[in-house]
Design a protein that fits this description.
By secondary structure, the protein is of the alpha+beta class. Helices cover 57% and strands 14% of the residues. Strands 10-22-21-20-11-18-19 form a seven-stranded mixed beta sheet, sandwiched between helices. Strands 2-1-3-9-4-7 form a six-stranded antiparallel beta sheet, with no helix packed on it. A six-stranded antiparallel beta sheet has the order 12-17-16-15-14-13, sandwiched between helices.
Length: 758
């Protein structure tokens, strides 16, 4: 393997340390054997062989218009030689050489996760051919090409899975278990095929894929190290003159040059040379492990001081795609039937709302029905024939709506949702309410960001005002600006910077100017635009917003440790310099004291590489299981609301049928799910929540759900044949109450439990 410049530098610095330590030890042995002159010669050689490269390092800094911290080390080495304090010079030489090795080691450890991204970048792809596959350079793959990803290989480009597959996504998301992707799902470049060979239909060229953007960012992170020690440079601006002044005064007032030398020896600024870069680069390493690649130390320092957060809405705070959040059915129809037929015709449409219908059907366990004669009319919807019925999904224009449908339309307006009408043979049978939902981890992320020191959170979006205000109100944000253009986003970010250090978070091309203008731009890189990732100072590798809170907490702690190490080390050095100026510390003792100070502050800075989490992780597989069950329980929850609505017409046969359907789904599906949560999920979450008290309120809601379900069952036991008119009011109250508790309970679990780190 070819030797890199970094390898050669590491060998030189390691060799320098070994030689200096060997000479220091040899001088000590020589002195012990009764040859003090020879010992001084050996120690002087150690001083000289360190002084030469140290002068080169200082000269390079001066050419780059940097000065301060390294210069003191050179002055200390020269001073010890000048006054014959050869042992002190050897100790300083060992200290300087050790510092260079420690710094290089910390940098290597901090950048290990970034370098791993580069090493994993695929170089070739396997194009599917009539007889098998052909290996070609990954740069030749184009959108639409069908490629084969062999077991254990990294997916080279973004694409769609014709037949599904199993993938290890831990490098991007931190998810420790393989993830099963169904047919027609998307797969991102950078994940590893954890199953049998799979076909991937490329949706982007390699250069435009998500992982390529992350690799480019990682290359910038490896190349850009300027700014890591800005705190050290600021302290050194006054520390160097102060050290020289104390040394000069000690010499002038006492006439003893040794005191000046002792001052310079104790002023050797390893707390500045090492502790600050170690803390900052340690924070970069921790951020990388948490799934956020930060370009450089300056960006991490700025994130650690951030006071204002400006966020895009669509795709950042929300999921960025519409989802069917509710299904309102006409009397006599159920959710599973409606979704199966609707998905049967919608599966042939490329529209985003059609995809939402197909996903809703899959979540509810309703396989798309076989459809024929499917056509799509722009602005109207999709039509087809399913099982002898004409099915239409889309807008309904002109015709008068029945009472249940008027109520559904009003619910759509009140919920700020789009309404898709499902019609069988020209008659409306269901209303599908579609919204771009808030990310489940958004509320937890906002709380953590405020706890990390973000005092102001603002929302900027090009979406409608009412939608933006609803999202801001749900998350407790401080301000919202809707219907803004990219230029207006840019101006808002620039205005925010005038008030404090500003972070901008977004995922689209229209966010790129604002990301570049912010003190720290953070892009969601999983499916965000390449332009956004390139303009940002940091990229969140997966699609979880709570990674932003992880990065903010890590940056805040790293910045605190850097400042703490710099200030503490400098103050201790000042105390040691004053002691040396007063004659309390001779040069040799001063060197040993400074060495002790260095060890203390470096160990403190190395804490930035550690993880402060004291609670255990959530059980990933179990959380994922109950999260998927929430989606499958949509028909059962919808049946509760449908039964309540049906009772508006009184104790009719249709209402009786809807009521008994809801009771059956409660008993067969929903209540067993709640019992399993109580006995399996909640005990397993105890470690992640800090104890069993973390689930007490949810357990109380379980009890209330059970109470209302038993009340409903008693109604049906009293009238096993058909409900009576005097039961209607209490049944409606029971059902609407149950619907409200279930809605709140599911939302709380999805926010509080299903977003826990796994």
């Amino acid at each position: 393997m070819d030797e890199t410049p970094a390898d050669r530098t590491r060998l030189r610095e390691g060799g320098l340390l070994a030689v200096v330590l060997l000479l220091a030890a040899a001088g000590g042995i020589t002195r012990w054997t009764g040859a003090p002159v020879a010992a001084d010669v050996v120690w002087a050689v150690a001083d000289l062989i360190t002084l030469v490269p140290a002068v080169v390092w200082v000269a390079a800094d001066l050419r780059a218009r940097r000065w301060g911290a390294d210069l003191l080390a050179v002055l200390a080495l020269v001073a010890t030689l000048a006054v014959g304090e050869y042992l002190a010079g050897a100790i300083v030489a060992a200290m300087v050489a050790t510092g260079r090795v420690l710094e290089a080691g910390a940098q290597r450890r901090a950048s290990r996760n970034l370098t791993a991204l580069l090493d994993r970048a695929p170089r070739v792809a396997h194009l599917r051919t009539a007889t098998g596959h052909e290996t070609v350079p990954v740069g030749t793959v184009r959108p639409g090409d069908l490629i084969v990803v062999l077991p254990g290989e990294v997916v080279p480009v973004d694409g769609v899975l014709p037949d599904g597959g199993t993938f290890d996504e831990s490098a991007l998301t931190g998810e420790p278990l393989p993830v099963q992707r169904p047919a027609d799902d998307t797969v991102h470049s950078g994940v590893v095929n954890a199953g049998a060979a799979v076909d991937v239909r490329a949706s982007a060229a390699a250069a435009d894929s998500a992982y390529a953007g992350v690799v480019r960012l990682a290359e910038q992170a490896a190349a850009r190290t300027a700014g890591v020690a800005r705190i050290a440079d600021r302290v050194a601006v006054w520390f160097l003159p102060a050290s020289l002044l104390i040394a000069a005064l000690a010499w002038l007032l006492t006439g003893e040059a040794d005191r000046a030398v002792a001052v310079l020896v104790t002023a050797t600024p390893c707390p500045l040379l090492l502790a600050v870069p170690i803390a900052v680069t340690g924070g970069m390493s921790r951020s990388s492990k948490a799934g956020v690649v930060v370009k450089d130390g300056a960006a991490l320092e700025a994130l650690g001081r951030a006071a204002i957060l400006v966020m895009d809405k669509t795709g950042t705070v929300t999921k960025g795609r519409p989802e069917i959040t509710d299904v309102v059915c006409a009397p006599g129809h159920d959710v599973t039937e409606v979704l199966a037929r609707a998905a049967g015709v919608e599966q042939y449409s490329p529209h985003v709302l059609a995809a939402a219908v197909v996903r809703a059907a899959a979540s509810a366990g309703a396989a798309p029905a076989a459809a024929e004669d499917v056509t799509e009319e722009v602005g109207s919807g999709v039509r087809g024939r399913v099982g002898g019925h004409r099915v239409h999904v889309g807008r309904r224009a002109g015709a008068e709506l029945p009472a249940w449908a008027r109520g559904a339309a009003r619910r759509g307006r009140l919920d700020l949702a789009s309404v898709l009408w499902v019609e069988f043979d020209g008659e409306p049978v269901a209303a599908l309410l579609a919204k771009d939902p808030i990310r489940p981890d958004a509320a937890r992320t906002m709380r953590r960001l405020r706890a990390a020191g973000i005092g102001e959170v603002r929302l900027l979006t090009g979406d409608r005002v009412d939608n933006a205000r609803e999202v801001a109100a749900m998350l407790g944000l401080d301000d919202v600006h809707a219907e803004v253009t990219p230029a207006e986003k840019l101006r808002e970010v620039e205005a925010a910077r005038a008030r404090g250090v500003t972070v901008m978070t977004g995922d689209g091309v229209n966010d790129a100017p604002a990301l570049a203008a912010a003190d720290v731009g953070v892009a969601l890189g999983s499916r965000g635009a390449t332009a956004a990732a390139q303009a940002a100072d940091a990229v969140i590798l997966d699609d979880r917003l709570d990674r932003l809170a992880d990065a903010a907490e890590i940056a805040r702690r790293s910045h605190r440790l850097a400042v703490q190490s710099a200030v503490a080390g400098t103050l201790l050095s000042l105390v040691a310099m004053l002691a040396a100026a007063g004659g309390v510390l001779v040069p040799v003792a001063g060197a040993l004291v400074q060495e002790a100070i260095d060890v203390v502050v470096i160990l403190n800075a190395l804490r930035a590489l550690g993880d402060r989490k004291v609670r255990g992780p959530a059980p990933a597989a179990m959380v994922r299981r109950f999260e998927s069950e929430h989606e499958k329980l949509l028909p059962a929850r919808a049946a509760v609301r449908q039964a309540a609505d049906a009772l508006a017409e009184g104790a009719t046969p249709a209402a009786d049928a809807a009521l008994r359907t809801a009771a059956r789904l409660l008993a067969d599906q929903l209540l067993p799910h709640e019992r399993a949560e109580e006995t399996e999920l909640y005990p397993a979450l105890s470690a992640a929540l800090g104890g069993p008290e973390g689930t007490v309120t949810m357990s109380r809601e379980h009890a209330e759900i059970g109470r209302l379900a038993r009340r409903l069952e008693r109604h049906l036991v009293e009238e096993p044949e058909r409900i009576q008119s005097d039961q209607v009011d209490d049944l409606r109250a029971t059902l609407y109450g149950l619907d409200a508790v279930l809605t709140l309970h599911f939302a709380q679990e999805e926010e509080a439990y299903f977003t826990l780190p796994s």
